[in-house]
Amino acid sequence: MKITLALAVLAATAATGARAQDFGFAGRDFSVDLGVGVDIGPDYPGSDDAEAGPWLIWRNAGFGQPGTNESEGFAISPSFGTVGERKASDNPDLTGMEDLDRAYELGFRVSYGMGPVTTSASLRRGFDGHEGLTGEVGAKYRTDLSDRVSLWSGLALGYGNGDYNDAYFGVDPAESAPGRPAYDIGGGINKAAITFEARYALTESTALLGEVEYGKLIGDAADSPVVQDEYQPSLRLGIVRKFSFGF
User: Fold this and answer.
1) Angle at 224 between CA 134 and CA 130, to 5 degrees
2) How far apart are CA 62 and CA 111, in angstroms?
3) I need a surface site. Which of 21, 57, 155, 156 has the fewest CB within 10 A?
């Protein structure tokens, strides 16, 4: 897994460099915030309990004029994610349901920045807990309050293919029980979210990063009989270092 992650980072860096030349970004800087932190959110999609997990941070990637904070143009970067394990023994409502191990997700994120606005789309494949495809599409707006403090506000939609949605929201006939009928679900949009992100610069290259997400399951996912809470808030806190590369 570590080798796969390393190759993904190298591939993304190489692809970004190639795009810088292809799209005429010579003379501009590519910058990105890299770091680690903690992610506090639902145990698994649809859970009403929270747990803390690792947060691998790759944020605010893009091109810009040297010395400015605004990112412009296309950028490709890795996208990481985890989903907590789901055990029937931990919740009476899940009795008879198949246990799901913790899932690790790896994929890519494509973004386009124009001034303070950045749009993005990500796609990841799961390993262990689920083997489906999931990701998000969204947009965010940047506001610089000072030289040290920057805020982002955004909207996002979450997506899962049939394998992903079936793993967390589906109910096989063998898993059905009174009050929990069999439930077949296909791929599609499963969550809408409002996000708020803040970056506080400790030095020119090091900063504290925080993100609050207020998500809600929607569509067929929200109607699943195994969903305990449609509202899925999360909080992330971490420390990042800004890396810049000139082209």
Assistant:
1) 35
2) 8
3) 21
Contacts with 126 (C-beta within 8 Å, 6 or more apart), sequence order: 83, 103, 104, 105, 132, 133, 134, 164
Placement of tokens 């124009």 in the chain: 114
**What distances in angstroms separate CA 180 from CA 20, 108, 210, 222, one per listed residue?**
52, 36, 37, 14
Q: How far apart are CA 34 and CA 41, in angstroms?
A: 21
Mean pLDDT for the chain?
A: 86
46 CB-near residues (< 8 Å, 6+ apart): 168, 169, 217, 221, 224, 226, 227, 228, 229, 230, 232
Please give the angle made by the CA atoms of 22, 26 and 27, to the nearest 5 degrees. Answer: 165
Residue pointed to by tokens 């903690």: 38
92 falls in which pLDDT band (50, 70, 90)?
A: confident
At residue 3, the pLDDT reads: 40
- Sheet of 73-83: strand order equals 50-64, 29-42, 231-246, 206-217, 188-201, 149-160, 133-144, 117-128, 103-114, 73-83
Q: Are 152 and 140 in contact (CB under 8 A)?
A: yes
Nearest one of 66, 41, 62 to 52, comparing CA atoms? 41
In this structure, are strands 149-160 and 188-201 parallel, antiparallel, or unpaired?
antiparallel
